[in-house]
Write a structure and sequence with these properties.
Two copies of one chain form a homodimer. The first copy, chain A, has 306 residues and is of the alpha/beta class. In chain A, 45% of the residues lie in helices and 12% in strands. In chain A, strands 3-2-1-4-5-6-7-8 form an eight-stranded mixed beta sheet.
Chain lengths: 306, 306
């Protein structure tokens, strides 16, 4: 595939994530006068499209009835919709993607999508499923930013039909957009691990806020409560869909967390200072080892980008 | 009491918190050439004292056997020890504080301390108990910083014997060190609320790390897990003491949190999308209302400081 700066990028959905990807591509890949590439965007929200045009993020915008027209022009397509809508879109417009194009998604749960692949895949269109591990507690294009991917994790879920050169291209592309650690895994492993690092954390943060006696409590906050609950300012419909789509994995992690919580609660309950101190020491070591986990960027950019 | 810049400040304990207070006072109150005030510091850790002298944070340092000598010179004393040691120190050196001095502490739990007051108070020394709601997951003078109080909450636990002018002085002092919201409350209310905003959060973060399957999981992190568990890099002996000293309150908050967690888990378990979305919407509104809680700084500095 061509150099990043000569490609036509298409966005299906221009909310927080679509907007952030589009802004990152504009700033990092299509900034110079020599860049012949373009950004096309489709959304049902006219205000988001207008804002993208006014700010020079998009070159052309399309309403939802013009999806087929837009897709025919795109070398790279980012589908930035909720998980179920992503599958619907891929099925509905299967025949409209440009031959040779690379198509990706941002779904936070992968099982349903990967299992639907037989009805989605075309020989001449490469669908590469990915999960950018970045976000914001705010929603919509207005809050999108080209910087949110800087230094973050990106998870790639390749499948047998992916062409190696397209995978290499896509890894280089996400690296060029700021992601520093790109991990390849299968969809079951993705859903299992993300249920822990992301969905369980949102469940815990939500339950913690729910259990607060009043909203004045923050006068007594020292940063811990604030940090633990920032993500409780949640996009309710999206997270409802994510929790339910990954229900089995999430329920298993909640149960494991509850069991860990019971362990420490029992130590506190029986005032077992030695046992409690040992529990906390082990946790400290474990969490510190996590901070030290080495970055595991895979692949070298085929087209060096600065 | 005199202008902030002419006072002698004494630190009992020069770890993360003592060091941070000393550095903030040095930078904000004793920086100019006209400042006649001094900082004296006592610690059992010689390396911390040497570092404080080398970096110009302390003017004079003392070993633990010289507490009485040092106290006699101090207008303001910050006791920056663990809670039980703070009570011990106050009792042991009761007669050595300078007449007219203001003495404070940083204990994260107040019941034991305030209940011990009858054996501690002197008519001519004002003990003003406080809790700076700031910190760091790292320990010791090396990691201390004069900036950690900027914009943070400070909780003041006045008692009947406190002189109004000393309370006003102390509020102005903490305000000058960077705290932006100073809340007055009684010790029972402090312990109840801090058990929620601080201790419960540390319990949850610790249990979440304990429940992680491996330390490689951070390759799948998108910031939520990292934010929720940073405080799990915990000072185990200190937090063991805090959890046990405030056991009753903490256990009640854990139970309330578990019940909130059960509620959301049940919604996920029976795939109740509508109920789940409602739960998450309510949480979002509640947490957003918390962010909007107005700052409630009380008192004006009697000695304007810049």
């Amino acid at each position: 595939m061509d150099n990043f700066s000569n490609l036509v990028y298409g966005f299906i959905g221009l909310g927080l994530m679509g907007g952030s990807f589009a802004k990152a591509i504009r700033a990092k890949l299509l900034a110079g006068p020599a860049a012949a590439g373009k950004i096309l965007a489709l959304d049902s929200n006219r205000a988001a499209l207008d804002a993208a045009m006014e700010r020079g993020v998009a070159d052309e915008v399309f309403g939802t009835d013009a999806a087929a027209t837009m897709l025919k022009c795109c070398d790279v397509v980012f589908i930035c919709l909720y998980p179920a809508k992503t599958i619907e879109f891929l099925k509905k417009y299967r025949d409209d993607f440009k031959s040779g194009s690379v198509v990706s998604d941002i779904s936070g749960v992968k099982a349903g999508l990967i299992e639907a692949l037989p009805g989605i895949l075309r020989d001449d269109v490469d669908f590469i499923s990915g999960h950018p591990m970045a976000g914001n507690e705010k929603e919509g294009f207005y809050y999108s930013s080209g910087c949110i991917f800087e230094g973050r994790n990106y998870i790639l879920i390749p499948h047998a039909a992916n062409k190696p050169e397209n995978l290499a291209f896509f890894k280089a592309l996400t690296g060029a957009l700021g992601f520093s650690r790109i991990t390849e895994t299968d969809y079951a492993s993705h859903d299992h691990k993300v249920a822990f690092t992301s969905q369980l954390c949102h469940v815990i943060a939500s339950a913690l806020v729910e259990s607060a006696e009043d909203t004045e409590i923050t006068a007594f906050g020292g940063g811990s409560f604030e940090d633990l609950t920032r993500i409780a300012m949640i996009n309710a419909p999206l997270w409802t869909e994510l929790f339910l789509a990954n229900r089995g994995e999430l329920l298993r992690h909640i149960a494991a967390f509850e069991s860990s919580l019971k362990k420490i609660t029992a130590l506190i309950g029986r005032a077992d200072g030695e046992g409690l101190c040992g529990y906390l020491e082990a946790v400290r070591l474990k969490r510190s080892a996590m901070s030290l986990t080495e970055s595991k960027v895979t692949g070298e950019p085929p087209h060096p980008q600065k």
